Amino acid sequence: MFVREALPEHHLSTESKDVVKLGVALIATMSALVLSLLVASAKSAFDTRSNQLVQASADIILLDRALARYGPETKDARSLLRDSVATVVERFWPAEGTRPISIDPNAQPVEALAVKIEELSPQNDMQRSLRSQALTTAQDVGRTRLLLFENLGSSIPLPFLVFWLCIIFASFGLFARRNATVIAVLCVCALSVAGAIFLILELDRLFEGLLQVSGAPLRTALARLGR
Question: Other CB atoms closer than 10 Å to residue 81's CB: what's the count?
Fold first, then answer.
């Protein structure tokens, strides 16, 4: 709007306005498509991670039950499993008023658990079957853990979209005289678009912010371990 006051009158002619409107319409169409794709992509990734967490929680319970049925020889393995789950829960979903604990990126609790399972010496067919089942389930848990927690960085490329939106809103103000109605409408539009971008960023940050993947499945699994 301030630039408008500095432009010569012939820059604000009908022909100039038509060209600007056509160019902005093209950018607005691209922005709308990209924005909708980003929302859909972020929502899909969020749902996928939620389902993976539920699957991992179920596998953890099944693993603990298989180890329990094997016999008292699996006491150390079950203890390691429970400690690993408790560490993950406190890291990503700390209790209110507590600080999240740090996790050693070089630590491989699932591999350590698999080693303990491999060290078991089955004495009968049932124990051999349970040992094989436990190893398979531990591998599944390890695979899901990698998918969930190893790549936590943002994957949303927003700079170019924000640049397009800035161009669009600049064009709105270029031909509008300053008054309360115009400013109010532009503010409402800006808040609406910002809300969509905020939603994308929140869905992309799985374990922080307002929209988090629920830790309830892991907490439920943790409560059932060792019984």
Answer: 28
